[in-house]
Amino acid sequence: MKVKMRIVFLIVFAVIFSGFSYSQAELPNVTIVTTGGTIAEKVDPKTGAAVPAVSGKDLIEAVPGLSKIANIKVVNFSNIDSSQITPDIWAKLSKAVDGILEDPKVSGVVITHGTDTMAEGAYFLELTLKSNKPVVFVGAMRDASELSPDGPANILNAVTQVCSKVAQDWGVTVTMNQYICSARDVRKTQTTNVQTFNSGEKGYLGYIAMGEVYRFNDALRRQKLPLPEKLPNVVLISEYAGADGRLLRYAVDSGVNGIVVEGVGAGNVNAKTYEAIKYALKKGIPVVITSRVYHGAVLPIYGGAGGGATLEKEGAILAGDLISPKARLLLMLALPYTKGDINKLKEILNR
Ligand code: ASP
């Protein structure tokens, strides 16, 4: 009798187990790579300030229902505030994510990241990842110890997006508070509100509700560049009323490889900054012009000492509607690739 019971138990166990493994095998495989940020932070009661505190495992355990939509693997890449991240770290992250995506069984990757530099990080990976599988950057505006943290729902939506049939060709996105934004056009627009990421007049790529992705737009103007052995030193200097060009001259004299000048309006600077830009160009340092204005592109409209048309004639490169920190990243990747070919550099920055 005991033996019979044991056999029945084994059969029941085997049926349950095979059913379980079958349904798991039916689910897509998604890897979550954690880097840190508010999503992995808690307030330290001693100081009252948020600090890194939550492991990748804790993050996933805080998301009910995740295991019903995908088989999740967690890779703890780092646990740092995104204000501390550098392009060199994103280069390592890009290689790590490509390594994960090489596995044909992996459908896509979700990257948890601080929101402060998330728009830049997403763009860096968009430019450098070899794989075209979905990669979703996600974070939180409210840390894990707040009354209603937004991280868990954001992670669930990010995994939903990776698994969705309608969301396979967007490349890298920033997906927060149900809205999906392209890596190229997204920016953080509010310092403390959960609805902080948007792409301005370019619009959202899509929206996630009730476990479904609603597709609004295609991700246009995607481009790829190889990761160089070493990233060049490129600085970003903003124009303002009364700027005297000294920071630009200092940058040149201290040996930078490229400069992004965030101009006013449609990409204009004053006469002193203009002189400093000419100083840089004469020394062979590429200068890229962006705008500090929220919407619109840099265009060769104005003449005179420092107008966009004059700057372009002088050899500066106008970066269209790419925002300044992203133009800096693009220049960092384009410089080693174009190896001094200014027309090729222009073509990449203007694309
Ligand atoms: N300071 C945080 C960061 O790592 C902000 C956030 O994640 O929302 O960017």
Strand content: 15-25%
CATH class label of the largest domain: Alpha Beta
Q: What is the name of the CATH topology of the largest domain?
A: Rossmann fold
User: Could you give the order of strands across the largest sheet?
Assistant: 4-1-5-6-7-8-11-12
pLDDT averaged residue by residue: 93
Topology record:
Elements: H1 2-26, E1 29-34, E2 41-43, E3 50-52, H2 56-61, H3 66-69, E4 71-76, H4 87-101, E5 106-112, H5 118-128, E6 135-138, H6 151-163, E7 172-176, E8 179-182, E9 187-188, E10 197-198, E11 206-209, E12 212-215, E13 234-238, H7 246-253, E14 258-263, H8 271-282, E15 287-291, H9 308-314, E16 317-318, H10 324-338, H11 342-350
Parallel strand pairs: 1-4, 1-5, 5-6, 6-7, 13-14, 14-15, 15-16
Antiparallel strand pairs: 2-3, 7-8, 8-11, 9-10, 11-12
Bound molecules: aspartic acid (ASP).
Give a structural overview.
By secondary structure, the protein is α/β, with parallel strands linked by helices. It has 2 domains: 14-215, 3-Layer(aba) Sandwich (Rossmann fold); 234-349, Rossmann fold (3-Layer(aba) Sandwich). It contains 11 helices and 16 strands. It has helices at residues 2-26, 56-61, 66-69, 87-101, 118-128, 151-163, 246-253, 271-282, 308-314, 324-338, 342-350, and strands spanning 29-34, 41-43, 50-52, 71-76, 106-112, 135-138, 172-176, 179-182, 187-188, 197-198, 206-209, 212-215, 234-238, 258-263, 287-291, 317-318. β14, α8 and β15 form a beta-alpha-beta unit. α4 (87-101) packs across α5 (118-128), α7 packs parallel to α8 (271-282) and α10 runs antiparallel to α11 (342-350). Aspartic acid is lined by residues 37-38, 81-83, 114-116, 139, 141.
